[in-house]
Amino acid sequence: MADDIAVGSPAESEAVRASESVTIYDVAKLAGVNPSTVSRALNRPGRVNAVTERRIRAAAETLNYHVNPMARALPTGRTSIVGLVVSDITNPVFFDVIRGAEAAATRSGYTLVLTESEESDEREYERAQRMLRMVDGMLLATPRMSDEQITALARQKPVAVVNRLVDDVLSVIPDVQHGIAEAVRHLRGLGHSRIAYVPGPPLSWMARRRGELLAQRCEWAHIELATLDSVAPTVAGGRSAAVAVRDSGATAVIAYNDLIAIGLMQELVETGIRIPADISVVGFDDIFGADFTSPPLTTIKSPLREGGDYAMAALLGRVTDTEVSADGFDLATTLVVRGSTGPAAR
């Protein structure tokens, strides 16, 4: 049958495998094709007949042959490696961003490499500079470095940012306005007239963006907003904000992210405050585990995986000079109502 994938006899396979170093010529011999066809199939997926490509990949797998990306870069100038920089690898918000970026990279035949900045703008720029030498393009997820530094990186190679807007740099931003509007409407409907907001890192563009849109929506809804001091985007950061939230006189609080909201809930409950009877709490992002809290966290769900996927696909479109459509990617935020919000305390 035409779809059968024959890769030679076991004896042939063992003979080649026993050699000191498997080459592209060995793969070509086993697959019954020319070496140039093997090169096209392994370096540029989709450039040869699908049945032939499967036969070549089966032969390469049988021989345990892998393309060396650095060797491949010599004639083409490309490594088929793309980079991703995140600010904190321990933050669950990045789990789905990474998964989405990895999915897009794999679809295009690229390998994804990852580094983190540990919430340091200086460390982020330094590591991004170092990584940029080894990759064809780079995605920055919620970066902390300055616009000028990002622009400097983008002058060297294709760069995209997600959860950040930078002039003249490919920027992918979820529609946070929709989810914030739903959250304010939800709290207003529960009778809340004074809300506190716990911002995230001062260097975070998205933290400022969420705060600005929340202030705008509260003004339109005739809700008083108390914006508190910025905290680290962690559970510990949320715990540190509990006293300020309690003293703000607000009957509801919206946190920059779910980790802050979770820490805030923990500290408030430990000091005798009931959630949501005394204070309603809303998070942001709907990370893994947001529904494991007691009570489960009401949160504004961000399209994390979709954002990572689309941002990486768009970046690779720049790398390969191909157009990428946004069709099929829904980047809107939505409110997920759970048990941490309720009627305003009287």
Structural write-up:
This protein has 346 residues and is α/β, with parallel strands linked by helices. The chain has three domains: 10-67, 434 Repressor (Amino-terminal Domain), CATH 1.10.260; 77-173 and 305-320, Response regulator (Rossmann fold, 3-Layer(aba) Sandwich); 176-302, Rossmann fold (3-Layer(aba) Sandwich), CATH 3.40.50.2300. Helix content is 45%, strand content 14%. The protein is built from 14 helices and eleven strands. The strands form two sheets. A six-stranded mixed sheet has the order 7-6-8-9-10-11, with helices on both faces. The chain has a five-stranded parallel sheet with strand order 2-1-3-4-5, with helices on both faces. Helix 2 crosses helix 4. The longest helix has 17 residues, at 304-320. The N and C termini lie far apart (76 Å).
Briefly, what is this?
This protein has 346 residues and is α/β, with parallel strands linked by helices.
Question: Layout of helices and strands, plus pairs?
Answer:
Layout: H1 10-17, H2 24-31, H3 35-43, H4 50-62, H5 69-76, E1 81-86, H6 93-107, E2 111-116, H7 121-132, E3 137-141, H8 147-156, E4 159-162, E5 170-172, H9 176-189, E6 194-198, H10 205-220, E7 224-227, H11 235-240, H12 242-247, E8 252-255, H13 258-270, E9 280-285, E10 298-301, H14 304-320, E11 334-336
